[in-house]
Design goal:
Keywords: Membrane, Transmembrane, Transmembrane helix. By secondary structure, the chain is of the alpha/beta class. It is built from 20 helices and 7 strands. The protein has 2 domains: 146 residues, no CATH class; 299 residues, no CATH class.
Length: 609
């Protein structure tokens, strides 16, 4: 018999229960019910909410440290700064201040000092009020001291340093640095957990944390050095090597056979590089030579000066490039001139036109100047990433020239001088082991705007006579080495303040109290320098103070802006070569009045092509 299967039905409601009511069917023609609303807020609202919560996640003491460091970083420095550079200083210092404040708060919490939420809220309220007062005051202070410094430099007040740009850039940079630091902290925490899983059974937790910190620090250095720095240097080298193929406006290939790059030259015009082409094509108008000769009583005939140069592509090694320079000296018969100057160029191969012009005007063109290129990179890149090449290049060039010069009869060869500015000064001094070596193998040296990490300069400065300041040291009573400081205005006779009894050969260091290139040093982080402990230089504001960490970053940024200062200040030595060359290489009968004439003519116009 077949049993019929009944369709399954829902269980009957329990006794006393009420059957749920069914919704009424929609009326005919009524609209359909709305779709379910997504309970999550939109992406824009979530982003705004995240930004609103982000400040509350910041450390109150960290924000206090950031505010303090931001305000101090806007204080007096060596040279005026544009808004871009001032904002960079303020942003870096604010990030460091935040880190130190947060670290202090962590130490206090670890020590068990109680701190309530109510106290934290009140602290933030007070901090907000302080920021509303301190930030505008610090920006106003920044404008004030920059105008005071320009007045001290003899310049009119500049436009506002754009406080909104300074503030905006500082905040953006500080936030970026903070996020990078937080990212590193998260990586350190993850590495710490991994280390504890592996060895936590045998190693205490504090030790695993230290191991994690050490591993992340090592990895960061490796990545920065191996990827960021080296990769960045390679990329910059490619960019600047391309720029090096160009020629500056107004520069044309010389026809004069006394110049490298001419049709008769062994150094091809196309291989000299951008700065090399500018150097060999540069010359002062004939009227300038005639004026100096007439006003100083020169009786010898004027000559066309010799300029020889070799570009980086002239050889596979620095020694090969230097040999091209020597070959050019042979070709131009430079050994018959009265003066031969070996000038070490800066990073891109630049030779300061005022340095060349001053020497050539001093001797009526009876000169030869030799230089060469050793890098495509500008000085600030070499300053940070490659300090070995400049002294190697300075040594290669000088040794090659000196070897050939030494072969000539002692009474029938030119006076041999060495010179350089900035990175060129650093590179030039790399050819010598001591000042005695300089005196034994040259007739004098002129080193201008020397970087503070130069070993020979540092050694001589540290050995200065007691009581002499770091900005203008006195060494052995000025017997051989003397320092000049702002002789461009004609009132500072520092070179001759020690008397005329100055033996030859002579070594001159020209430096400004306001030149950050000279005074930059890692020691500024924690050590007050002598140049801010002793009486200030004449172009440094009395209100300039040393502050740990902050002064280091202020001076670091000054490396990029020091060259924009007016002549006689910062890293601008335009008219001071006249005093330097007149001191170490004066023609017979040359006196102080003649130096004033030379300084005046050098200051008229720059070298022309």
């Amino acid at each position: 018999m077949t049993i019929p299967i009944r369709p399954a039905t829902s269980a009957p409601p329990a006794r006393g229960a009420t059957e749920p009511a069914l919704p009424d069917p929609p009326a005919i023609g009524a609209a359909a019910p709305d779709a379910a609303v997504d309970p999550r807020p939109s992406l824009g609202r979530r982003v705004l909410a995240a930004f609103a919560r982000w400040p509350r996640r910041l450390s109150g003491p960290g924000l206090a440290g950031a505010l303090l460091f931001f305000a101090i970083s806007l204080g007096p420095a060596l040279v005026p700064r544009a808004a871009l550079y001032q904002g960079a200083v303020a942003g870096i210092c604010a990030a460091i201040g935040y880190g130190l404040g947060a670290l202090l708060a962590w130490v206090v919490r670890t020590a068990g000092v109680p701190w309530s939420r109510a106290g934290s809220r009140w602290f933030r309220r007070v901090l907000l009020i302080a920021a509303l007062v301190v930030v505008p005051a610090a920006l106003w202070w920044n404008n004030t001291w920059q105008d005071d410094l320009l007045e001290l430099f003899g310049e009119p007040p500049a436009q506002s340093s754009h406080p909104f740009v300074v503030l905006g850039l500082a905040v953006v940079l500080a936030v970026l640095l903070l996020q990078v630091a937080r990212g590193l902290r998260r990586v350190t925490q993850w590495v710490g957990r991994l280390v504890r899983r592996l060895v936590g059974r045998w190693v205490p937790v504090p030790v695993t944390r230290l191991v994690a910190i050490a591993l992340v620090a090592w990895l960061t250095v490796v990545v920065l050095d191996g990827t960021v720095v080296r990769g960045g240097l390679a990329a910059l080298n490619g960019v600047y090597s391309t720029l090096d193929t160009g020629t500056a406006d107004g520069v044309e290939q010389p026809d004069d056979p006394l110049r490298s790059g001419s049709p008769q030259s062994l150094a091809a015009w196309d291989e000299l590089g951008l700065q090399g082409r500018t150097f060999v094509a540069g010359r002062r108008p004939a009227a300038h030579f005639e004026e100096v000769a007439q006003r100083t009583g020169r009786t010898e005939p004027l000559q066309d000066p010799i300029r020889v140069y070799a570009g980086l592509s002239a050889g596979d090694t620095l020694d090969e490039v230097a040999q091209v320079v020597v070959a050019e000296l042979d070709r131009t018969r430079a050994w018959d001139r009265s003066v031969l100057a070996v000038v070490t160029a800066t990073g891109t191969g630049w030779v300061d036109p005022s340095m060349s012009d001053s020497l050539e005007l001093l001797w009526g063109g009876d000169t030869a100047i030799a230089s060469m290129q050793y890098s495509y990179l500008p000085s600030w890149v070499s300053f940070v990433g490659d300090r070995s090449t400049p002294p190697a290049a300075g040594k290669a060039l000088f040794e090659a020239v000196y070897e050939r010069w030494s072969q000539l009869p002692q009474d029938d060869r030119p006076l041999l001088y060495v010179a350089g500015i900035s990175l060129g000064s650093y590179g030039s001094q790399g050819a010598f082991s001591s000042v005695q070596d300089v005196v034994a193998r040259t007739d004098g040296a002129l080193w201008v705007g020397t970087p503070g990490f130069t070993e020979l300069w540092r050694e001589l400065t540290d050995d200065r006579d007691p009581g002499s300041p770091e900005i203008t040291p006195v060494l052995d009573g000025g017997q051989t080495v003397r320092w000049a400081n702002r002789p461009a205005d004609g009132t500072d006779r520092q070179l001759w303040a020690l008397g005329d009894a100055w033996e030859r050969p002579r070594v001159v260091y020209d430096q400004h109290a306001s030149d950050g290139v000279t005074w930059w040093s890692p020691r500024l982080v924690l050590n007050k320098p002598d140049w801010l402990s002793e009486p200030r230089g004449s172009d440094v504001l009395p209100s300039t103070r040393w502050v740990p960490i902050i002064t280091f970053w202020q001076t670091t940024i000054d490396l990029f802006v020091a060259g924009s200062a007016p002549p006689g200040h910062g890293h601008n030595y335009h008219t001071e070569y006249a005093d330097g060359w007149s001191a170490i290489a004066p023609p017979d009968g040359w006196d102080a009045d003649d130096t004033a004439v030379l300084r005046e003519v050098v200051g008229l116009v720059p070298s022309v092509a």
